[in-house]
Amino acid sequence: MTTFLWYIPNTVAPGHRGDDTVEGYGSLDHATELALTAEQHGWEGALIGTGWGRPDTFTVATAIAARTTTFRPLAAIRPGYWQPAHFASAAATLQHLSGGRLLVNIVSGRDDLAAYGDIEGDQAQRYGRTKEFMRLVRRLWTEENVTFDGEHFRVTGSTVAPPIGGTVPRLYFGGASPAAEKVAATEADVQLFWGEPLDGIAERVDRLRTLAKDLDRDLPELEFGLRITTVVRDTREEAWHDAEARVAAMAGQSAARHDRSLDQHRGPAVGQQRLLDLAARGDVLDSCLYTAPGRYGGGGAGTTWLVGSADDVAAALREYAALGVSHFVLSDTPYQRETARVGDALIPRLRL
Questions:
Q1: Among 89, 149, 240, 348, which residue is least crowded by beta carbons within 10 Å?
Q2: Residue 181 CB neighbour total at 10 angstroms
Q3: For residues 130 and 124, what is the distance between their CA atoms, to the nearest angstrom?
Q4: Strands (E), 177-222
Q5: pTM of the model
């Protein structure tokens, strides 16, 4: 079963990734309008991002769930910002109140940790903590009187209420370093990839499946997802015209803005660096994977774009599906327009 999710910008400041600035941007009414549009145009739900200095993701997800019917929030959360028992309780509550609609994206990447009282460890510490967090949260969702004494977290006689029962939220997880992939192979339900070429995704799928066997994964088989920007227009020519014009505008922005987008104090994470390195192979890889945005400040899902007509982009996504990708988290701006237009154009083609 293939899952199609969109993206809702979780920010009060308008204009995220060039989005339209509208009255009430960042309000609950605005976020709800985007979620309802997603419901009406074939999307099962949407990713809601996280980061200190932005609205609290879980609060936003809860509020949107209360105003929608089928919409599934993929709420991004961070170990360290959340303690596992606190998060397990909050998630169990939302899962109960929403009728089982919650999805969770575990994020271990950089953030302003000191601002919310967390500490920065090395990579081994960071992913070791994430692994414990994910394992303990699952136990709290599925067991009673949980006692756990780990390196990073401890609970004694902990029982979460209300009980989740059989509908446990799925855990999405990203990360391309060896440490991150070991966590995904043993603890995640879905490994999310950024928009790499097909050969890179095939290599990673194979490696993660091998890791899952070697590390004695005790969960159902790991699934895979793709998080990427899609520039879809009525014709291939129109799509590339718009994409190239957008990149030209990005290129005209200051170098300082580009540096800030990649956080020059720490450098990009392994997964982000993989995307930035793609530009050396060419501006267009595979059939329609556009790498040029990464040269001019595109970050995360905005580093590479799938560009073309609906048939072009649907064909590209089917190529990823043939490699084992069954979860697609797509986006483009302006969000309101593209939620409807891309949903109507792509999802029927991909459901065939």
A1: 149
A2: 21
A3: 10
A4: 190-193
A5: 0.93
